[in-house]
């Protein structure tokens, strides 16, 4: 039996679950592709690079949501593994947002 929690159960920035984050993102009509793209930016440039983006997600409200996640992650991220953890979490959020959109 695998005792490793899924990415959706892992706490993300500030301890927020991917499900909780996806609900917030879905309320703001964030496109899953935008979250997947942001995850790739985090993976390739790091949390600090992504946090410095003027508009991490399209639109002011969406960017504010992403900035809150990125700032929270920036407080504890110090390694490439931390960057990868956040990227996986963002991908999980995007996957859940896509499922929410499909079920609506």
Strand content: under 5%
Shape: globular
**Helix-strand topology string:** HHHHH
Give the tally of β-strands.
0
Rg measurement, Å: 13 Å
Given helix and strand content, the structural type is mainly alpha
Short description:
The chain is 67% helix and 0% strand.
State the main characteristics.
mainly alpha; 5 helices; 104 residues; globular
Secondary structure topology:
Layout: H1 18-27, H2 32-45, H3 47-51, H4 60-76, H5 80-103
Mind explaining what this structure looks like?
The protein has 104 residues and is mainly α. It has one domain (17-103). It has five helices and no strands. The longest helix has 24 residues, at 80-103.
